[in-house]
Amino acid sequence: MRISIFILVALTLFSCTKDPVMGSAPTAADAQFSYIVSSTSANVIEFTAASEDKQYLWDLGNGIKKQGANIVGEYPYAGTYIVKLTVFGQGGSVSSTQTITIDQDDLSLLNNPIYNMLTGGVSGPGFKVWHVDSAAVAHIGVGPDPESAAGAIPEWWSANPNEKPGCGIYDDSYVFHLNAFKFDMITNGDVYIHNSLSSTFPGSFQNLFDYTAPYTDQLDESWQLTEGTQNSITISNNAFIGFFTGVRTYNILEMTDTTMQLQYKHHEGGLLWYLKLKSE
């Protein structure tokens, strides 16, 4: 996974990007929001931001994040949820929260296409196990960040089938549960990490250009879906998926019932990593 020094230097010097202009600095009033219960279900809530011409990120408190001034939240399970709206402007960001209460379960709301593909859905066993697809070309790969004109592909390097045997990645399992959006990372004792992270993993050793590191199973974590122009999955705490580059949010490039292709960043910037997985 070695990248030429020339490419890295050029990337550092010439790949600067500008933040989007989003109007004036947001105020506390901009972050206020209202909500109503949908006429379709008492478990569906319609949220509206008080401001205009900003960028909006909602954390619905149920494992889902969404973007936009007007969004709909679905709450399959009864409970109390803290909803957080963060509004971004040219001068920074500001947030507010409100608490909503859902009185009863409505499991029909779990019939979400991404939920179904990722976990098997309400008609399945309630979970699905995923692995890195070691037999696929480009099951691990890397390209520039930001993407070049070539698009979302690992244009700098991609692994051939079974190119990383014995590195601690092919025997790892990632279990996505539908109930409470639970996530289990089963490592079988070790993981594969980028060489720049070796000092933060005690006992790691060099293995085929990067590092294998001792790592225990990370159980009872959670996964969170962010829906928007680009759907993504975020994994909680110390769990992660596949080759570790220091981040835990993964853009979903493609997904079927049995395959998944993800794109994710590098902790130092400048690189976009790619990962292919298959389900059991």
General description of the model:
The protein has 280 residues and is mainly β. The chain has 2 domains: 28-109, Immunoglobulin-like, CATH 2.60.40; 114-279. Helices cover 6% and strands 42% of the residues. The protein has helices at 5-14, 113-119, and strands at 33-37, 44-49, 55-59, 64-67, 70-74, 79-89, 92-102, 127-132, 140-144, 157-158, 173-177, 182-186, 190-193, 205-207, 210-214, 218-227, 232-235, 249-255, 259-265, 271-279. The chain has an 8-stranded antiparallel barrel with strand order 8-11-12-16-17-18-19-20. It has a 3-stranded antiparallel sheet with strand order 1-2-5, with no helix packed on it. The protein has a 3-stranded antiparallel sheet with strand order 13-15-14, with no helix packed on it. The longest helix is centred in the first third of the chain and has 10 residues, at 5-14. It is globular. The two termini are 27 Å apart.
What is the alpha-carbon Rg in Å? Answer: 20 Å
- Note the gap between the termini: 27 Å
The structure class reads: mainly beta
Total number of distinct structural domains = 2
Main beta sheet strand tally, sense and closure: 8 strands, antiparallel, barrel
Percentage of residues assigned to helices:
under 10%
Low-confidence stretches: 1-22
Q: Can you count the helices?
A: 2
Number of strands: 20
Write the H/E string, N to C.
HEEEEEEEHEEEEEEEEEEEEE
The largest sheet has its strands arranged as 8-11-12-16-17-18-19-20
Choose one word for the global shape: globular
Proportion of beta-strand residues: 35-45%
